[in-house]
Specification:
By secondary structure, this protein is of the alpha+beta class. It has helices at 37-40, 78-92, 151-154, 158-164, 178-193, 215-219, 225-234, 242-247, and strands at 2-11, 28-33, 57-61, 64-65, 98-99, 107-109, 114-124, 130-136, 146-148, 169-170, 210-211, 256-259, 264-267, 272-275, 278-281, 288-290, 311-317, 329-334, 340-341, 346-349, 354-356, 360-361, 366-370, 381-387, 393-400, 410-411. The strands form eight sheets. A five-stranded mixed beta barrel has the order 1-2-3-8-7. The longest helix has 16 residues, at 178-193.
């Protein structure tokens, strides 16, 4: 499975509204993509569009589940929950982060309100968040590129670091490729065997049950966060067993699972043992796959591509005969039956240099544009992005160095 590269900035504080800013935790952080249109194009397994605003979009870190610093006016053991949050922020490059005393999940001050970073994402979750692996700075891939996420690159992510150091639990959804699930499952087992981080205090798992009489007792424990999130509302109910309570709502409570040890489908109730006030998982979290929330009937599960295809980049001349500068060409095609006004549209090269366009394209017409304004087409390979006047990406193409020949125009295949 491939992932889309989104470059941008991780954000932990709004300078103009600090008390209304983001609430980062150990597996979720706000992200402002350089190209918001990329989030719109991602798959939506649960049918939910990206919750993207002028402030950005939240990223839910793939493959891990950190203990909750805040959930429905409750929290898990704060020692472990805050440690995971602080480690994620440190890993992404934030320093001297301080939280409000009366708003302990909002950042009062830090050396940086935002830092550059990259998300590799393959979809949007049921809450409209990016599902992804996060990296400080910029990994070796262009914005908008699709990459195969190998184990070596995965190990450089903050996700893998948190899992290996025992700051978080594993949580493997069906969106995670099998090869990475196997690899990260091994990372999690090693952390547990070494009693790293939370594993030294973990309970309600195959090693032993936890006694949970009420919410206060639950908040003192280190347990798998998804089980915590189910127990918080359950403890407010009366007269129903936990098993019956789970089964009564197969979408929002009794998550669908695939049990790897049995090679069969099941539900959350199949892996939770409850006897009175004693609860435990009977299977380690890396040994089952969680189904994403199902999409409502009729909801699209593929990403929207606003205006995509109206105008296409159909050819490029990166290495003209003679001097390159002032002679490199990009060819556009209007595929629609209407005239397209190119005023304030832009072309952007791989390095992010832009060129503002003007003029019109009549129906079916082509237009050759000379690269200018500092924009260049690299002879060792390159990429060109076309965006409309609002910044919506209309087309994006890339070519390899092996395609470049002096004086020859590269035709972009579709």
């Amino acid at each position: 499975m491939t992932y889309t590269v989104l470059q941008g900035r991780f954000v932990i504080r709004y300078p103009d509204l600090p008390r209304q800013g983001p609430e980062p935790d150990g597996d979720t952080i706000k992200f402002m993509p350089d190209d918001p249109g990329l989030a719109e194009e991602l798959p939506r397994p649960s049918g939910t569009p990206p919750d993207l605003t002028a402030r950005g979009i939240s990223v839910r870190l793939e493959a891990i589940d950190a203990m909750e610093t805040h959930f429905a006016e409750a929290h898990q053991e704060l020692l472990g929950a805050n440690a995971a949050r602080d480690e994620l922020l440190k890993e992404l490059g934030f320093t001297n982060v301080r939280f409000f005393a009366d708003l302990p999940n909002k950042v009062e001050s830090a050396d940086q309100d935002s830092v550059p970073g990259t998300v590799l994402s393959n979809g949007i979750d049921a809450h409209g968040r990016l599902i992804g692996f996060v990296f400080a700075g910029t990994p070796p891939a262009d914005d908008g590129a699709t990459v195969f996420l190998a184990e070596t690159l995965t190990d450089r992510s903050a996700n893998a670091h948190l899992l290996a150091a025992g700051f978080v639990y594993p949580a493997f959804y069906a969106t995670l490729p099998a090869s990475l699930r196997t690899h990260l499952g091994g990372v999690s087992r090693k952390a547990r065997e070494n009693q790293a981080g939370i594993w030294a205090r973990s309970t309600a798992d195959p090693n032993g049950a936890a006694l949970i009489a009420d919410l206060a007792a639950l908040q003192r424990l280190v347990i798998w966060p998804k089980l915590f999130r189910r127990l918080v509302p359950f403890l407010a109910t009366r007269g129903m067993s936990f098993d019956a309570w789970l089964r009564s709502d197969p979408v929002n409570r009794d998550d669908g699972l695939f049990l790897l040890d049995r090679l069969e489908s099941g539900n959350l109730h199949d892996i939770v043992e409850n006897n009175g006030q004693r609860f435990r998982l009977t299977v380690w979290p890396e040994d089952f796959i969680i189904d994403p929330d199902p999409a409502p009937q009729g909801a699209p599960t593929t990403g929207a591509r606003p205006a995509t295809g109206d105008v296409l980049i159909v050819a490029a001349l990166p290495d003209p005969a003679g001097t390159d500068r002032g002679n490199e060409l990009i060819t556009l095609l209007n595929t629609t039956g209407a005239t397209v006004d190119l005023a304030s549209w832009t072309l952007r090269d791989r390095a992010g240099r832009t060129q503002t366009l003007s003029g019109i394209l009549t129906p079916g017409a082509v237009l050759q544009i000379v690269a200018a304004g500092g924009m260049t087409l690299g002879n060792q390979g390159g990429a060109v992005t076309l965006a409309d006047a609002l910044g919506t990406v209309v087309d994006r193409v890339a070519y390899e160095g092996g395609q470049v020949k002096e004086g020859r125009t590269i035709v972009i295949g579709r």
